[in-house]
Amino acid sequence: MESQSYNGYSIWGHAILQQEAILQPERFAASGTITRSGKLVEASGILGYFDTEDEAQHAGLDWARAWIDGHG
Predict the structure, then answer these.
(1) pTM for the model
(2) Domain residues for 54?
(3) Domain total for the chain?
(4) How many CB atoms lie within 10 A of CB 4?
């Protein structure tokens, strides 16, 4: 999980390990969360699947920034 501050909000990018079978390569589901003053503002569902934890976390952060830009 990676967090940042953005325009007065705290945003979080999540990477959720998805390993469907032992022989399959690891994949990560991405999601994002937005909070302000310690309270939940919005949370995404699964945004997509990525090969690395970093890519998934960044997708969650990108979604959160876009949500704030569209609702601010």
Answers:
(1) 0.89
(2) 2-71
(3) 1
(4) 12
